[in-house]
Amino acid sequence: MSDLTLAQAVDNLWGMKSEILKATWETCIMMGISVPVSVFFGTLLGIGMFATGNHMLFYNRTANKVLDNVINLIRAFPFVILMVAMGPLTLLVIGKSIGPYAASLILSVSGMFYFARLVEQNLREVPRGIIEAATSMGASPTAIIFKVLLSEARSGMVLSITVLSIGILSYSAAAGMIGGGGLGDLAVRYGYHRFQTDMMVFIVAVLVLAVIVIQSLGNLIARKLDKR
C-alpha cells in the first residue's frame, strides 16, 4: 500500500468491482442462510438444555447430559477442521463441497450449537420466581417457555443473535480460505497470494464496518426490548 497512491488504490479496486460485488453477495448468502437457521435450531436446542436441566420444566437427566455433551463436542471443533470434516456431508446434501451454499450448511451447524449455549444462559438469567408464578396460575410448561421465558429473555436473546451474527461473519471470512467464497476468499486470493495490500485493507475495512453496524443495531433493539 505504501507504493501506491490513494488514487491508484481506488482505481485498482474500481477495476475489480465485479469481483468485489460477487464476493459481497456470496458473504450475504452465507449470512442470510446460516444466521436464521442457527437461531431457529439453536433456540430449540437451548430450550431443550434449559428445560431438561435440574428442577426444570421437563427434567430429564439423561437427555440433558446427551444434549450437553453433543453441544460441547461440536463447539470444541475448530471451524476450519469442521469444514473439512463435513465435506462429504455437504457434498451429499448440497451436491458440492465448496461455494457459499456448502459453507452455509457448515456455518449453520457450527452456529446452532454455539447459539444453543447462549440461549440456555439467557433463559437461566430469568428469575425463577417468574416461572413459579406462571406455574401457580396454571400455565402449561410449553406456554411458560414460549410465552413467558422467551419474552422475559428477549433483550438478551437479541444481544446473543448479535454475537452470533458477528461470529458467523468472521467464520464466513475463514470459509473463503478453503473454497467457501465470499470476502474472505477475495482477501486470500488477491490480498495475500498476490500481495495486493489495497484489497486486503479494503476488505478488512468492509468487515469492520459490518461488525460495527451489526453490533450497533443489536444494541439499539436490545435497549428498546429491555423492560428493566
UniProtKB/TrEMBL annotation:
Transmembrane residue ranges: 29-52, 73-95, 101-119, 157-179, 199-222
InterPro entries reported in the protein's UniProt record: AA_ABC_Transporter_Permease (IPR051322), MetI-like (IPR000515), MetI-like_sf (IPR035906)
Pfam families, sorted: BPD_transp_1 (PF00528)
UniProt main location, coarse: membrane
Keywords, ordered alphabetically: Cell membrane, Membrane, Transmembrane, Transmembrane helix, Transport
GO CC field: plasma membrane
GO BP field: D-methionine transmembrane transport
Keyword Nucleotide-binding: no
Matching CDD domains: TM_PBP2
Localization (cell): Cell membrane
PROSITE patterns membership: ABC_TM1
Membrane topology field: Multi-pass membrane protein
Signal peptide positions (record): none
UniProt-listed SUPFAM superfamilies: MetI-like
Domain called ABC transmembrane type-1: residue spans: 24-218
Keyword Cell membrane included in the entry's annotation: yes
Protein family membership: Belongs to the binding-protein-dependent transport system permease family.
The protein's name: Methionine ABC superfamily ATP binding cassette transporter, membrane protein
Species this chain originates from: Neisseria wadsworthii 9715
High-level lineage: Bacteria, Pseudomonadati, Pseudomonadota, Betaproteobacteria, Neisseriales
Gene: metI
